[in-house]
Every structure is written in C-alpha cells, then in structure tokens.
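[job 0417] fold request received: DUF4440 domain-containing protein
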Amino acid sequence: MKNRFAFAALLALLTLTAATAQAQTAPAAGSAADEAAVKMVLTKYQQAVQKLDTTGTHRLFAPNSQVFESGGVEGTYRHYAEHHLGPELKEFSAFTFSDYKAAVQVDGPYAFATETYTYTINLKNGPQDKQAKAPVVRRGVATSVLRKNAAGQWQIMSTHSSARTPRPKK
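[job 0417] inference complete; emitting structure tokens
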C-alpha cells in the first residue's frame, strides 16, 4: 500500500512539474479582442495624421516611448509630436493613406505590429506659389511594439517607420 501511495504521489508530482514547465515555455497567445484593440490604437493614430491634428494622440503612446523615423532617432512621442510631426502637419493641406495593411501578433502584455501603406501628402501653397505643388507619394512601412498598461489599455512603446518613392509598376 505504501508503495502504491508513493508511486501515485510521484506520478502526480511529475505530471504537475511537466505541466508547469510546458506553461512556462509556451507563448502566451493574445485574444482576438487584444488584436482588435491593438489595431484600433494604430487606426486612431492613422486617423489623427489624416486629420492633420495630433491632439490627444499622446495617450496612444507610453510616456517613455521611442520614435524612429527614416534613420532618425526622434525621442519620445511627445517630443516627436511637438518638434517634428506637429510642425510638418501644419505645412500640409492633406495627408492620406491607401493600400493599408496591418499584421499584429499579441504575446501576453506585448503586441508586435507591422503596417504597410502608401501615403500621399499635399503641401499648402505659399503666397509666392503660382500653381499647386506636386503631391508627395511614398510607400511606407512601420513596425511597432505595444504594451498593455496597468489600466488595460494598449500603448505604443516603440515605433519605427520608413518610406521610399514607389517603384514603377511593370
């Protein structure tokens, strides 16, 4: 009887140990709701840029976020919005995205996003301009890392974007 009890206890211990090891090594998959919430953060940012207005967008970013753009280190999002993005948007009459696609992978409290898109910028005419400036068209890509904060909201921790002139279609 003692041997059976000892064997059953050992078997239970091995099963528990194996289950714990498997849980620790298995990636924590995100839910469809988390994926949708992450995509909504990206969409809200995209919509703000299209409206040429960054008001309130700082809430989409972690306070210590990092922004990297086309080979440059822009600092936190607040710095980027105040010293780069905001002043640029004031020079535009329109900013539109097209061919937009987003892929999101959620892993526990972190999410990894890749966005591809084409954007078109229409510049404002100055008093000296006799005709409209040609639109700026670029093919862009952005990768972002987001984290779910203590309040359960997804925020961008790091984002890196780059763009180039679209290649001619063959």
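[job 0417] notes: The two ends are 80 Å apart (CA to CA). Residues 70 and 118 are 15 Å apart (CA to CA).
[job 0417] exit 0
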